[in-house]
Design goal:
alpha+beta
Length: 517
């Protein structure tokens, strides 16, 4: 039997979208089980050929590596916002030393993010904030990933040795002078500009002017809304990317945040080599209660022109009442330089769509006019054959750092309600930058594509006005008396499925009326 990893590689080689091929597995609070699961999980498990850097731990300091209940204080606070730095420890789980040369384009950069998951029947995961990238400067020779069997070869300084780990504290990852822009990086090739302190002062603009600039900024109202919180970080560096190891560079960890002080506490274990979008399924019905109805699909354009990286699409469909379903989507960009530029879900003719919404997270600390283009809301379009959202400002190669594409290490949301039940199908993720292919398809929950159903209350199917009349009551009563499943208006599953609630349901739909037969 082929392993999941082998199936993933064969599918990628064929140029196809790769749906998630594993559940989130055993409790990730058990470090032995965590390490074992990573060995079979398609996004990681090593060693990989060449240099391969991952986030081995999220923490506050070197001494808290692997510890539970790790406290991180705010780096800045005012009436409406807080800012954080998230400590990270890298591990080189590859077979070759990884370059770590300060003040050059040959070292890692480290973005940090915070998310909120609202669990339950109508769950969703949203990104609350993001930082600029910590620019690395020298590597130490610790052994944070020894619990996976890695042993440091002792090389450090300008390289991160094979099996070695290097820690950055939360305060260091929040040091504003060493935080550079993420939007100038190509996450697929790992290329980004860098130089000495004078070069950075001249190019990392505008200069720092407040205690919030460049740090991981979160609105207090978003924290006060409650839910489950997750910190996430990634390492991006050229030699890792060139070796084809850029997909596994992201890890996440659950956090709690205290009311009033907004002190963050990292709990559970770091979930290595896994983007936070997988936390939605792992905790969708509540803490450590998976929601296996959430579909996750990993897509790429590795064989495209130009070749490019990975994005992940997750989806969930929830029935609201007898005639309405809610569709919730999340899109996370792991390392695609072409970025997401549109997202489209097919619908059948006659489908009634409402409450269509797009949600993104703001970039910040740049010049206001430039940030405005990067934060421009996507346009929502409800058409006759699809419901979609798309970037308003087209990509301009003359100003490549501007525009509102779904950039790397970022998650966007799209949702809507409609009158069609869910089926498995494909959503279309369009790229922001030009190239081939122009889009990829991702397995997702979509509305039923059969012809749109007639109005339920028009039981006798009449086409002459008024569509709804006394004959519909007689029709429904006859169906109920005959035990016909069509009389199960409220879609109940507990016997007896036909009961007085179905009459109430029918009356409510009848009272709402029909615009068509």
């Amino acid at each position: 039997m082929q392993s999941k990893s082998m199936i993933a590689m064969l599918t990628v080689a064929a140029g196809l979208a790769v749906p998630a091929m594993a559940e989130d597995g055993p409790s990730l609070s058990d470090r032995v089980l965590q390490a074992a699961w990573q060995r079979v999980y398609p996004t990681g498990g090593g060693p990989d050929a060449g240099p391969d850097v991952i986030v081995g731990e999220l923490h506050s300091s070197q001494s808290s590596n692997g510890s539970m209940n790790v406290t991180i204080n705010t780096s800045a606070s005012d009436a409406n916002r807080v800012a954080y730095g998230i400590g990270t420890t890298s591990c080189n789980v590859g077979t070759v030393n990884l370059n770590w040369i300060a003040n050059t384009p040959n070292h890692p950069i480290i973005p940090q993010n915070l998310y909120r998951l609202t669990p339950g029947t109508n769950s969703r995961i949203v990104q609350l904030g993001q930082s600029w990238c910590k620019f690395a400067f020298t590597a130490l020779t610790y052994n944070a990933c020894s619990n996976e069997g890695y042993t440091c070869n002792g090389s450090g300084g300008s390289v991160l040795g094979v099996g070695c780990s290097d820690p950055y504290t939360a305060s260091r990852n929040a040091t504003q002078s060493s935080l550079g822009p993420r939007f100038t990086a190509n996450p697929f090739t790992g290329a980004f500009p860098d130089g000495n302190s004078a070069w950075r002062s001249a190019n990392w603009l505008p200069a720092v002017s407040t205690s919030f600039d460049r740090r991981l900024i979160v609105q207090k109202a978003d924290i006060d809304a409650g839910g489950l919180f997750f910190a996430e970080a990634a390492y991006l560096t050229p030699d890792d990317a060139v070796a084809g190891n850029g997909k596994n560079n992201t890890s996440y960890r659950r956090a709690t945040i205290a009311a009033g002080t907004y002190t963050m506490t990292l709990v559970d274990s770091t979930v290595r080599r896994t983007p936070v979008i997988y936390a939605w399924r792992a905790h969708g019905l509540g803490l450590n209660t998976p929601d296996n109805s959430i579909m996750i699909s990993e897509v790429n354009s590795l064989t495209g022109t130009p070749a490019d990286g990975w994005l992940v699409v997750a989806s969930k469909a929830t029935q609201i009442n007898s005639t309405t379903w809610h569709y919730e989507y999340a899109m996370e960009n792991l390392n695609s330089d072409r970025m997401g530029g549109s997202f489209s879900v097919p619908i059948a003719a006659g489908t009634v769509v409402s409450n269509a919404q797009w949600r993104g997270v703001d970039t910040h600390s740049g010049f206001p006019a430039e940030d405005a283009t990067r934060n421009e809301a996507w346009r929502v379009v409800i058409g006759s054959t699809s419901v979609s959202c798309q970037a308003n400002t087209p990509y301009n190669p003359g100003t490549p750092t501007l525009g509102n594409g779904l950039r790397w290490a970022t998650l966007y949301n799209f949702s809507f309600d409609c009158n069609r039940p869910p089926v498995t199908g494909n959503a279309t993720l369009g790229f922001y930058k030009p190239g081939t292919p122009a889009s990829v398809t991702a397995a997702a929950w979509i509305p039923d594509q059969t012809a749109a159903a007639s109005c339920y209350a028009n039981c006798d199917g009449s086409t002459i006005l008024p569509f709804l009349n006394i004959n519909d009551f007689i029709c429904f009563q006859n169906q109920f008396a005959a035990g016909d499943s069509r009389a199960n208006c409220d879609n109940s599953t507990i016997p007896p499925v036909l009961n007085v609630n179905d009459f109430t349901c029918f009356l409510n739909i009848f009272a709402a009326g029909c615009s068509a037969p």
